[in-house]
Every structure is written in structure tokens, then in C-alpha cells.
Automatic annotation (TrEMBL):
Entry-linked PANTHER family: HTH-TYPE TRANSCRIPTIONAL REGULATOR RUTR, MYCOFACTOCIN BIOSYNTHESIS TRANSCRIPTIONAL REGULATOR MFTR-RELATED
Keywords for this protein: DNA-binding, Transcription, Transcription regulation
Residue ranges annotated for the HTH tetR-type domain, each copy included: 10-70
Keyword Ribonucleoprotein: no
Lineage, uppermost ranks: Bacteria, Bacillati, Actinomycetota, Actinomycetes, Kitasatosporales
Location of the DNA-binding region in this protein: 33-52
Protein name: TetR/AcrR family transcriptional regulator
Lineage top rank: taxon: Bacteria
The keyword Transcription regulation is annotated on this UniProt entry: yes
Amino acid sequence: MESSGTTRRQATRQKLYEAAVTLIAEKGFSATTVDEIAERAGVAKGTVYYNFKSKTELFEELLRHGVGLLTASLRAAAEESAERGGTRVEALDAMIRAGLAFIDRYPAFTQLYVAELWRTNRAWQSTLLVVRQEAVAVVEDVLREAVDSGELSEEIDIPLTAAALVGMVLVAALDWQAFQPERSIDEVHSALSLLLHGRVSGH
């Protein structure tokens, strides 16, 4: 059991993450100050420095935290699908839906993550690569199982296919939220599901 001090600290960190992610998504990293993050989170400025050594460290932790949540939800979707006796392709389908649900829940974090992914020379570039690899690795594992079980062709390039699936979900979901918000998650999921099953070409 966790002590109340630990729980309280986690709650404070969660508030700081949420404040930081919305501010940075609105204004950009450079323009966001620690004072503003503290004010938005409703805590004293010293609390920010008690929890994180610097704004950069807060941002790195934010990336780890957010992608950690995404990775956990992808893994849970694949495991639930397997427990129901589903195929590996059905597990991938469940992961697409879990990814969409995550992005629907954390749109500001997703925008931030996608924007940072292709920037270079950032202090947190190495952290970003590590957390990206964690999320992609979950998809790679299921693709590898699908190839091993004969569900998917041995010709597929697993690392690129995994990256393409993750990228497809991220970009399609951001497009959905920015330009097609009237669509339901079911509609977006079924469109991506057709792509996954290779049915767009009409075969």
C-alpha cells in the first residue's frame, strides 16, 4: 500500500503534467514559464522545483508519462483481445481503437508529442526516441506473433509496419479532431480497420 505522502505527490505531479501539457500545446515550450505552470496547476512555484529540477526535466517526464500511458493502453488492448481468443490481426485492430481512445482523451499531449517527434536538437531528443520505441515495440511484438503464426506474410517489414501503424493512428486521430470532429470514434476506427485489413484496394 502506498503512503498518503506518495499518493499526494503523484496527484501533484499529475496536476503539473496536465498544466504543462495544455500550456505548452497552446504557447510552445520556450514561451511557457514555470510560474505559469505552477499557477495553472494551482501550486506554489517551489512545488514545481521540488518535483522536477527544471522545466526541461518536467517536459521529459511529461513525455515519458504520456507515452507510458499510451503504451500501457495498447498492451492492455492486445492482451484483452488474446484472452478473448482473438487473432493477432484482431489484436492490432483493438490496439488501433485503444490508440484512438487515448488520443481522444489526451488531445493536447498527442499534438505536443507529434510536433516534438520530428524536431531535432532538442534536449529531450533521446528521451523521445526511447519512449517512441516503447510504444512501437508493443505493436512490433504483435506483428511478429502474427507472422510467426502465419496470419501475416513473412515479407512484411516489422519495424516499418509497426511505425506506419502507430503513425497512421496518430495522424488520423489528430486530423479527426482538428477537421472532422463530428465523426464518432467508431467511424474513424472502422476506416482505419479497413486499411489494416488491406481492403481499401477492393480485393
